[in-house]
Amino acid sequence: AQRVTQPEKLLSVFKGAPVELKCNYSYSGSPELFWYVQYSRQRLQLLLRHISRESIKGFTADLNKGETSFHLKKPFAQEEDSAMYYCALKFDNAGNMLTFGGGTRLMVKP
Amino acid sequence: KAGVTQTPRYLIKTRGQQVTLSCSPISGHRSVSWYQQTPGQGLQFLFEYFSETQRNKGNFPGRFSGRQFSNSRSEMNVSTLELGDSALYLCASSLEAGGRQPQHFGDGTRLSIL
Question: Per-residue DSSP letters for A26-42?
Answer without folding.
Answer: E-SS--EEEEEEE-TTS
